[in-house]
Amino acid sequence: MLPKRLQTWIDSQYENPRGVVGTYIGEKMVRQHRVEVDWTIEQLHIQPDNRVLDLGCGAGDALAQMLRGYNHVHVTGLDRSPTIVRSALRRNRVDVQTGRAEVVQGDLGTLPFPDAQFDRVFSIHTLYFWEDVPAVLAEIDRVLAPGGSFVITYCDGKADVTWDAIASIVREQFIPAASALNLTDLVETRGPDSRDYHTVAVSGQKPI
Q1: HSE-up of 75 (CA within 13 Å, CB side)?
Q2: How far apart are CA 111 and CA 123, in angstroms?
Q3: What is the pLDDT of residue 10?
Q4: What pLDDT does 34 receive?
Q5: Which of 98, 99, 129, 149 has the largest count of CB atoms under 10 Å?
Q6: CA 81, CA 19: separation in Å to the nearest integer?
Q7: How much is the pTM?
Q8: pLDDT tens track for 9-35
Q9: CB 191 within 8 A of CB 41
């Protein structure tokens, strides 16, 4: 077992990757999360000319997957980590240069985008780190265009263990806050297991 201080430092790198170790962890997460990425993209039901925002985009793998899979789509990635933003920019360099993609540094609680800019907003494995769930949802609602939708993917357990804390966040904070914003069609969808972790997503829509 790792010393507590070292384990705390490693955990902090997953939340906010930094330096050489952060770059390595970003690439490790690309390999680990491919199942969730592919499944989440399917849940988005992307249409031609959609503008898509990935909150907590990591090293930019989901952006790259969408750009390969859809000819007429514009993708934006946001991450709090300058280290990981650089990785995402490298991975999507050509599409950034041609204007199909952009990657920016920013915080989920104060998104640096105009109102109603995106048709789809998604996030994978960030919900655990939302310090203020209603505030993040309010920002998602703000940047979504009328009729736009969101998908928030996370894991709520591993093998035979259920993570009650994340289930409580969804039940007691996320769903009530989304309902208070008048977001509709709120659905929890069970996804494929990934490395024995149980994948689930909450999706919803902004009324027209």
Answers
A1: 30
A2: 13
A3: 46
A4: 86
A5: 149
A6: 10
A7: 0.87
A8: 445 555 566 555 566 566 667 667 789
A9: no
Fold of the CATH domain 4-205? Rossmann fold (3.40.50)
| pLDDT value for 30 | 64
Q: How many Cα neighbours within 13 Å face the side chain of 127?
A: 26
Q: Domain extents for the chain?
A: 4-205
| Mean pLDDT per 10-residue section of the chain, whose length is 208 residues | 50 57 63 88 96 96 95 95 93 96 96 98 96 97 98 96 94 98 97 94 97
Instruction: List, as one string, the DSSP characters of the chain.
Output: ---HHHHHHHHHHHHS--HHHHHHHHHHHHHHTHHHHHHHHHHH---TTEEEEEET-TTSHHHHHHHHH-SSEEEEEEES-HHHHHHHHHHTHHHHHHTSEEEEE-BTTB-SS-TT-EEEEEEES-GGG-S-HHHHHHHHHHHEEEEEEEEEEEEEEETTEE-HHHHHHIIIIIHHHHHHTT-EEEEEEE---BTTEEEEEEEEE---
- Calculate the dihedral angle through the C-alpha atoms of 147, 45, 78, 70, rounding to the nearest 10 degrees: -120
Residues 150, 188: Cα–Cα separation, whole Å? 12
Strand 184-190, strand 197-205: pairing:
antiparallel
d(CA 197, CA 180): 30
